[in-house]
Structure formats: C-alpha cells, structure tokens
Automatic annotation (TrEMBL):
Gene3D superfamilies: Clavaminate synthase-like. GO terms for molecular function: oxidoreductase activity. Keywords: Oxidoreductase. The keyword Oxidoreductase applies. InterPro entries: TauD-like_sf, TauD/TfdA-like. This is TauD/TfdA-like domain-containing protein. The keyword Oxidoreductase applies. It holds the Pfam family TauD. Residues 110-348 form the TauD/TfdA-like domain.
Length: 358
C-alpha cells in the first residue's frame, strides 16, 4: 500500500510531494511550511515537551487526527533517525530534523525535506548509510538544496579538514603556513564561522568522519534566542547598533585584514536575532566606546558564566558518518580540548536559502 493511500484525504489536500519508491519505502519529496510544523514536536528546538496543535502554530482547520497521523508517520518512517531521549545537558532535536539516508540517491531525493527543516529550525542531522570518505555527498546536498558552497580562503576550497594538522595551511597574507584553531588540539571557544567575512556564510555543515573516542572534542551549541534572554536590554541595543573591528585570521585571508560589523542583527523577514561573534578576533578593548565595551563584556560574561551554557549532542547524533547542517547565524558553537588526535570532521560553509532554487 502506498503512503498516499494511508493519509486522510483532507490531509492530502494540504500536503505535497509524497512518492512511493520501488523498494517499498516512501520518501518525502517536498514539504510545505504547514507540513514542517506538523512534523515537529515543537516549534522551538529549545522546548522538550510535545506541542499541542495550537502550540505548533497550525491553522485551526488542521484536525487533531491529521496532526497525530503525521507525527506518527515521522516516528515510523525508515528515513527519519530516532535518537534516544536526550539527557538534560543534550540538545533536543525537534521531531523530523534527524534523518537517515540509506543511499546517496535516496538522500538527494530528500533534498526538499532537508531544506525545509533546515530553513525552519536551523539545524538537521543526517545519518549516512553509505561510505563517503571524501564528503562529496555533503557538497551535493548543499547544492541540491539550492545553496552555494563558499571557499574558506584565497588558497583553500569549499571543504576544510577539521583535524589535527600542525603543519597548517598556506596563507596568502603571510606567504607561509599558518595553523587554524580548528586544526589544533586546544579548546575552541564560542563563535560563529566566518564572522570576519563581509557577509558571513549563513550555514555550515560538518561531516563527522572520526569523532574523538577519548572523551575530548565535545561539540556544544547555543541558540541565539537563549543567549539574548540572558542579556540586558541596554546591551542588546548596543550590540545591535555598534560596529566593532574584527581581525581576519591569516588562514582565512581573502584580501582584507580587518572588517567592521555589528555583532547582533535582526532578520527582517522573521524578526529572529542573528549573531556573528568570535572573541579572539575582537580588539582588546573591543572599541574606544565604554558603552560598547560594557556590552561585549556582558556578552562574554554570559558565555563564561558559572554553569555552562549551551548543550551537547548525544552520541547517537554526533557519530561517525553523520552530517550536521546548521544555521550559522542562529547558533553559536564551541568545542572542548581534543584528546584524540585522530578526530576528523570535514566542514563546508554555504550561502543561499535552502529550498530556494533558481
């Protein structure tokens, strides 16, 4: 029996793009915004309880039967990953944002579902069921979603090895080799990727080739909405309006040594807070303005405060041959000190609107 024959007719009239596959499974081909709200247990990734129909932001015309049916559909689909119940300190992925791609073909066929989930929630995880040691699928799915991978520097391409590499990479700025923090063994404090760019890449992806198996290299993320709640209104106002000078790390040099930008902004279409931040490339003090310096000091204090902020990923998410795609402006991320020198991730940074095909 095909999936379409199982869905209530009224539900089919609202949703699009289900197609039965010859192997007996069914992959979601496209998903409208209302569908994505149905697929997830909560509108915010910070919530942990199962949302009611109203809490999911659905129109009242959606019946409870449809709501329950689609939630159960996601829970039983072979193309959705169902991680164990997260611990208190672990990030709780919304229902329908953790996927399985048993083959490259099926993974690419799910591009629209990936794109809608990433656009709506800012984060997805994909468990690969096939070997991809060169991380080509990550590039392919980024492009299939209608986005464009960006180069890391004037000498490095779209893919960047996040692994212990004491020899570093060649920098056009210095003419010699420089070592990025991401290619060392030390801690990497809270930051967003490419925050020194004139226009930072909106998204990034990580292909986990070899997680740290000695207890180090713990990846953490912090939703910007959660961060902003901890800041005073005065600091928020300052960070939204003051431009700070940012130093461009030599390994990511593209022709300019510094840039000036606001650390916080508001996305016009959604009203969401967006951030660019990396403490070690700010001047010390950050500016000549005491008010601006006080705002940065408060921001730093929140990130350094007693009781760690942010959340980790469970081991059934951050595991070998899985891909994480994240909104670089809606989450900060960091990592602890590396204990396993063989830890190996591969990164891509990309721009565009997921699902926004030309």
């Amino acid at each position: 029996m095909s999936l379409s024959s199982q869905i209530p007719r009224s539900c089919l009239q609202r949703l699009t793009g289900y197609a039965s596959r010859s192997n007996g499974f069914t992959a979601v081909r496209t998903a409208s915004r209302p569908m994505l709200r149905l697929l997830h247990e909560s509108h915010s990734p910070l919530k942990t309880s199962v949302a009611s129909l109203e809490q999911s932001g659905l129109e009242s015309s959606f019946s409870f039967q449809e709501f329950t049916f689609l939630q159960n559909l996601v829970k039983t689909s072979p193309f959705f990953l169902h991680p164990s119940q997260p611990k208190a300190e672990e990030f709780n992925f919304p229902l329908g944002t953790t996927f399985k791609a048993p083959t490259r073909e099926i993974g690419l066929d799910m591009k629209n579902t990936f794109a809608q989930a990433l656009k709506e929630y800012g984060i997805i995880a994909i468990e690969l069921g096939f070997d991809d040691s060169k991380s080509q699928f990550m590039l392919e799915i980024v492009e299939a979603m209608g986005c464009t991978p960006d180069t890391h520097s004037s000498t490095q391409g779209a893919l960047w090895d996040v692994t212990y590499r004491p020899s570093g990479v060649i920098s056009e700025k210095t003419g010699g080799n420089v070592v990025s923090i991401s290619q060392g063994l030390g801690e990497f404090a809270w930051h967003t990727d490419g925050c020194f760019e004139v226009s930072p890449q909106r998204y990034f992806g990580l292909h986990i080739l070899h997680p740290d198996k000695l207890g180090g290299g713990i990846f953490r993320l912090l939703a910007i909405d959660d961060l902003v709640k901890r800041l005073s209104p005065a600091s928020i106002e300052t960070l939204l309006n003051y431009e700070f000078e940012l130093q461009v790390p030599p390994e990511f040099y593209k022709g300019s040594a510094t840039t000036r930008h606001k650390l916080l902004s508001i996305e016009p279409d959604t009203g969401r807070y967006l951030i660019r931040y990396r403490r070690d490339i700010l001047a010390d003090p950050p500016s000549d303005d005491p008010i601006a310096n006080a705002a940065v000091m408060e921001l730093n204090a929140v990130l350094d405060g007693e009781g760690s902020v942010g959340q980790t990923f469970s081991k059934d998410i951050f595991k070998e041959n899985s891909i994480l795609l994240m909104d670089n402006a809606r989450f900060l991320h960091c990592r602890t000190e590396i204990k396993d020198p063989k830890r190996f991730l591969r990164r891509v940074r990309f721009n565009g609107t997921p699902g926004g095909h030309a």
